[in-house]
Amino acid sequence: MHLQFDTLRYAESLKWAGIPWAQAKAKTEALTMVLEEAVASTLATNDDIRSCRAEMTQAKLEMRSMKWLMLISAAGLTLLIAMHLR
Fold it and tell me: pTM of this prediction?
């Protein structure tokens, strides 16, 4: 992911504040690297979102299967109890 950051404007503002140009440029480059790393490590990519959606779809299918299994088990248990009470 690309970070929109006006590096020239930032470096010039440092220079106008009295920081030598070489130091302002170095600080700008360092800040740009840190911001890009922070953005890359915290934002989800389209692939991340697709993967999460696939996992959620799979989980829904598994829960649906478990629901039917529990319903069938409850019906079987009810039938066994009814047969035992006769």
Answer: 0.47
